[in-house]
Amino acid sequence: MIGLMEDYSSWDYLPVDHIRTPAFNSGVVSEASNGNKEFSVSLDAAVPDDILERIFTFLPIASMIRATAVCKRWYGIIYSSRFLWTHMLPQRPWYFMFTSNETAAGYAFDPILRKWYDLELPYIDKSSCFVSSSCGLVCFMDNDNRNTISVSNPITKNSKRLLEPPGETLPDYSTIAMKVDRLSHKYSITVAKSKQVPEDAVRWYFSVYMYDSWSGTWVTSASEVFIGWRGGDDSVICNGVLYCLIHSTGVLRNVNPRHGVIMYDLVGGSSETSLMQTSIPVPCSLTCGRLVNLKEKLVLVGGIAKHNRPDIIKGIGIWELHEKQWHEVTRMPHKFFQGFGEFDDVFACSGTDNLVYIQSYGATALLVFDMMHKQWKWSVKCPVSKRFPLQLFTGFCFEPRLDITT
Question: What is the three-class DSSP state of 308?
Fold first, then answer.
């Protein structure tokens, strides 16, 4: 199976401290003038700030971080200039991979330089958590009580723990979604909780709570009782609309399809329309589904189930939603599907910009799909190693930025 991937013999990874080392040593130009006297001219001093800003906009984020260590002037320009971040070239999303059995420390993959960086996440005690990201910030919700939520910038290590959301302390199922405004840098977080009605196998409570960074408070946005369906553990925000994956409980024999997607308008607020009336069936029988926001378009990445064995995955497909209709983008070629080795019926998947990352929970292989060019490609090998047979891996992607704070 390894032969199906790229040659891993030359891969390398760098600790985060390496990123912060100077990218190069500034040179000195010497000229002979007025006899034998020499005058030293600093190239840095000869370049005005606006020209440096222009130069920095062409750098990948890792090179920009290294440039902050050159001198105080460069550090100030990169960290304080709003011009720099509004005019720089788009940064491709990084993917953070870690083991779900140990600490939250792991490695971040840079798709531009094709390198892995040693990275630690602040405020995260365990790797077992729900994750959502947007515009440089990442939101984490602890899996144990599903009420401990924090927001951080993985690059700058700036972080903040939020007030606990209202509602059930220990819901049966939860999901979290985050959205950052690119102009104001304010952010909102939604948490959807699902809990079975006591002694009732048919009905499930479903509630949506929203946090606004401007007010620093939570509000209850929606509450409903589902019949024969429950909330899932995957959601995303696109164009002000919250999309949540829901699952059939099977008690009403509504097992095909077993998944659906509901919509809730976070901008317009609640209406008299039931959330279940907004539900959209998935395009085919799936073992699992992952919702991704790619440039404000809803994308579904799903494990395609065998016709006679709905719990067995036979492939992975990608669909895009248009006017409540799913349009198939592509299906993973069989050689790449085989490249994961033993594939479970569920997998980790996230994406932003034009990239979709897919990772098996049982291995460190990371596959990247470019939506723009319709290309599949393996990342270079991750330094995370498998220490025992039942060790699991997971991950998420985020946009690397230096200008967004919590």
Answer: coil
Closest CA to 121 of 141, 145, 138, 143: 138
Write the CB contacts of 119 (distance below 8 Å, at least 6 apart in sequence): 16, 96, 105, 106, 107, 108, 154
> Are 307 and 351 contacting, i.e. CB atoms less than 8 angstroms apart?
no
Indicate the pTM of the whole model.
0.83
What six digits make up the tokens of 248? 């059939």
Residue matched to tokens 């060790």: 391
User: Distances in Å between the alpha carbon of 158 and those of 150, 153, 177, 311?
Assistant: 11, 5, 19, 41
Report pLDDT digits (tens) over 267-281.
877 667 789 888 999
Residue type, 382: C
- CA–CA separation, 104 vs 217, rounded Å? 27
Q: Nearest 5°: phi and psi at 122? A: -75, 150
The pLDDT, as a whole number, for residue 271 is: 65
What gap in Å lies between CA 220 and CA 137, rounded to an integer? 23
Q: How far apart are the first and last CA of the chain?
A: 42
Residue 140 near residue 129, CB atoms below 8 Å? yes
Q: 78: helix, coil or strand?
A: helix
Rounded CA gap, 62 and 110, in Å?
8
- Tell me which residue of 337, 243, 362, 218 sits closest to 293, measured CA to CA: 243
* pLDDT, tens digit (0-9, with 9 covering 90-100), for 362-395: 888 899 999 999 999 999 888 887 777 777 888 8
Q: Measure CA 308 to chain center.
A: 33
- Residue-level pLDDT at 11: 38
Residue 164: Cβ-neighbour burial (10 angstroms; 0-12, 13-18, 19+): middle
Residues 121-171: tens digit of each pLDDT? 766 665 567 899 999 899 998 887 778 899 999 888 888 999 999 888 888
- List Cβ<8 Å contacts ≥24 apart for 240-244: 240/265, 240/266, 240/267, 241/265, 241/266, 241/267, 242/177, 242/190, 242/192, 242/208, 242/266, 243/291, 243/298, 244/175, 244/192, 244/208
- Write phi, then psi, for 338 (nearest 5 degrees): -70, -30
Residues of the chain short of pLDDT 50, as ranges, are: 1-14, 16-35
Do 355 and 379 form a contact (C-beta atoms < 8 A)? no
Report the percent of the chain where pLDDT is more than 70: 81
